[in-house]
Amino acid sequence: MGHRQERVNHMLRDELALLLQRQVRDPRLSGLISIIQVKTSPDMRDAQVFVSIMASEKERQEAMDALVSASGFFRHEL
């Protein structure tokens, strides 16, 4: 992975964390959620986002559902 791709990955991780913290107002995301890592494809068209959710299994699944439903918002904002 090139240096530029690593910088983009870190920048995306930081921006997603800020968006999650300041702009997403979904009550299902009330637990402790951390953006662990972002991996972009070599052409930087796609990204995988790895998260950590500290909650019960049910709350974790609800939070993942909320993140999936908010993916369009994240794409738009980025």
DSSP helical segment count: 3
Uncertain spans? none
Distance between the termini: 22 Å
What is the makeup of the main sheet?
A: 2 strands, antiparallel
Shape: elongated
Overall number of strands: 2
What is the H/E order?
HEEHH
Provide the structure class.
alpha+beta
Question: C-alpha Rg, in Å?
Answer: 13 Å
Tell me about this structure.
The chain is of the alpha+beta class and 78 residues long. The protein has 3 helices and 2 strands; from the N terminus they run H-E-E-H-H. It has a two-stranded antiparallel sheet with strand order 1-2. A hairpin with a 6-residue loop joins strand 1 (32-40) and strand 2. The chain is elongated, with a radius of gyration of 13 Å. The mean pLDDT is 92.
Topology:
Elements: H1 3-22, E1 32-40, E2 47-54, H2 57-69, H3 71-77
Properties at a glance:
single chain; 78 residues; alpha+beta; two-stranded antiparallel sheet; 2 strands; 51% helix; elongated
Tell me briefly what this model is.
The protein is built from 3 helices and 2 strands, in the order H-E-E-H-H. It has 78 residues and is of the alpha+beta class.
